[in-house]
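Q: Please design a sequence for this.
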């Protein structure tokens, strides 16, 4: 079955798409609004603003890759679709950070799990930060509109074995479990979502809001890294970009983008990096502060029957049994999900080397995994991390693991092991 290449067709229809890596001389563009980043926030903003007749330019540091480029190969995908070729990590290299870096941002490579912000979180924000308009009731129509736009609904297909182990273990222990809502349409159930969807089934910004914005007359400039914003006492007048070559390194030409308004939608690490490089006034010293990761730990197990976690929807079952059990501001809660299991990422995550790694990878079809996503930011001992600049101006996150978080790690490891043993695991790794 042939897959329609949305962008090839769009370019023939006159879509304005510029590959900055091909520019050899300084160039200036102008718009009403410039949006930095083309992920969930940037893509949505571009669609809404362009539909009102506003002249929009979208800037993306990474490449434009489409369904015809997604060959379900880990090494190709990690090198071309992720920040720092998938090597982005915290300042001490202790925590890996998988974050998208291509048109569509992380929506191009995420695993399609699409949750509403929990009512407990919205209430916490409202009560502690005096936010207005963010109650569960007030947010409901906004969530509903995006769910319709991105075809978000609970996955109707039987879970793959990897997800089924989580479900079966929870059922035997009497733990709560639920079906995950996914942003897919006509999904082929392949299981390679983290490498870009080769069938355009994932309703990422790459195939939804960005094409709509381009059809509305917006301009997309990819391979363009924003270096600095230029500002006077009150306003940003323009920004300066470095074109990025195909290898991901900055080229010599410079782009200048002028606009009346600027939206930073490059993520919670890149955005502060831009502001810090630009020396934007920061009277309260808050730029880059309180950056949260919901740190993830992972438990492997060997099951008596084949799991083959590389096939099928990567995430379709979750458990919030331990998410809010001890209150919003009590000990760190955690959500339980499973990750897709592909050879390269799994081998790296197992942490073994040499012969030991080889022996464990021989069991790969039987290996199961659960991840615990720690809920950070709700407690005085969970202040998140701080974005800083390296000597070359690139952003890096310093994220200290406190005793509060380590307690959550230990408790989640215990919960995951109990579930895996209940589902029939022999060893838990």
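A: Design:
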């Amino acid at each position: 079955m042939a897959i329609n290449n949305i962008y090839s067709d769009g370019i023939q229809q006159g879509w304005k798409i510029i590959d900055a890596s091909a520019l050899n001389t300084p160039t200036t563009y102008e718009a009403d609004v410039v949006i930095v980043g083309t992920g969930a926030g940037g893509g949505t903003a571009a669609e809404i603003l362009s539909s009102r007749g506003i002249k929009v330019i979208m800037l993306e540091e990474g490449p434009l890759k489409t369904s015809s480029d997604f060959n379900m190969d880990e090494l190709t995908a990690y090198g071309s679709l992720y920040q720092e070729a998938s090597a982005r990590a915290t300042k001490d290299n202790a925590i890996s950070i998988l974050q998208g870096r291509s048109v569509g941002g992380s929506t191009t490579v995420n695993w399609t799990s699409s949750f509403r912000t929990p009512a407990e979180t919205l209430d916490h924000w409202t009560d502690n930060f005096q936010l207005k308009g963010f109650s569960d009731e007030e947010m409901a129509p906004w969530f509903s509109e995006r769910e319709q736009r991105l075809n978000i609904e609970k996955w109707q297909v039987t879970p793959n074995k990897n997800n089924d182990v989580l479900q079966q273990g929870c059922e035997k222990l009497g733990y709560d479990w639920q079906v995950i809502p996914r942003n897919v349409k006509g999904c082929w159930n392949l299981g390679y979502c983290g490498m870009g969807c080769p069938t355009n089934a994932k309703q990422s910004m790459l195939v939804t809001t960005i094409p709509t914005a381009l059809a509305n007359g917006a301009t997309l400039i990819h391979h363009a890294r924003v270096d600095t914003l230029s500002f006077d006492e009150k306003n940003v007048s323009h920004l300066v970009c470095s074109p990025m070559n195909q290898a991901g390194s900055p080229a010599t030409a410079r782009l200048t983008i002028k606009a009346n308004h600027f939206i930073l939608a490059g993520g919670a690490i890149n955005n502060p990096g831009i502001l810090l490089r630009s020396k934007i006034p920061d009277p309260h010293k808050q730029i880059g502060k309180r950056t949260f990761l919901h740190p993830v730990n992972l438990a492997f197990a060997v099951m008596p029957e084949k799991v083959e976690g590389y096939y099928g929807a990567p995430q379709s079952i979750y458990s919030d049994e331990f998410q809010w059990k001890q209150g919003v501001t009590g000990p760190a809660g955690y959500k339980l999900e499973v990750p897709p299991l592909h050879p390269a990422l799994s081998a790296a995550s197992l942490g073994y080397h040499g012969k030991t790694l080889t022996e464990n990878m021989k069991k790969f079809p039987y290996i199961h995994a659960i991840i615990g996503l720690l809920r950070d930011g709700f407690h005085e001992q969970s202040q998140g991390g701080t974005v800083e600049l390296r000597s070359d101006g690139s952003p890096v996150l310093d994220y200290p693991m406190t005793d509060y978080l380590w307690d959550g790690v230990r408790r989640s490891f215990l919960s995951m092991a109990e579930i895996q043993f209940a589902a029939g695991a022999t060893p838990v790794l």
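Q: Thanks. Anything notable?
A: Residues 403-422 form the longest helix (20 residues). The two ends are 41 Å apart (CA to CA).
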